[in-house]
């Protein structure tokens, strides 16, 4: 799942080397925290959050096939 997020986001940003995804487990759910360069934050979020929502949709769909609750946080 971590590789999926990195692959999607790296294709969108100008600084793919700054893309970092960390994983942690909280109360039976997996939380992925995505960190990108400040200059790329707008590209990851998109207008009115559309790109962020699309990334989350893909990640949640991939997680549902594994019967896991997955959340994606986007931070600077």
Shape: globular
Q: Tell me the number of structural domains.
A: 1
What's the CATH superfamily, by name? K homology (KH) domain
Average pLDDT figure: 92
What is the second-level CATH architecture?
2-Layer Sandwich
Q: Percent helix among the residues? A: 40-55%
- As residue ranges, the low-confidence spans are none
CATH topology-level fold name: GMP Synthetase, Chain A, domain 3
Percentage of residues in strands: 25-35%
| Biggest sheet features | 3 strands, mixed
Count of alpha and pi helical runs: 3
Q: Round the Cα radius of gyration to an integer and report it.
A: 12 Å
> What's the total number of strands?
3
Instruction: List the helices and strands in order.
Output: HEEHHE
Gap from first CA to last CA: 20 Å
Helix/strand class: alpha+beta
Record the strand order, biggest sheet.
Answer: 1-2-3
- Provide the CATH top-level class: Alpha Beta
Question: Could you walk me through the main structural features you see in this protein, from its secondary elements to its overall organization?
Answer:
With 76 residues, the chain is of the alpha+beta class. The chain has one domain (2-75): K homology (KH) domain (GMP Synthetase, Chain A, domain 3, 2-Layer Sandwich), CATH 3.30.300.20. The chain is built from three helices and three strands; from the N terminus they run αββααβ. The protein has a three-stranded mixed beta sheet with strand order 1-2-3, covered by helices on one side. The mean pLDDT is 92.
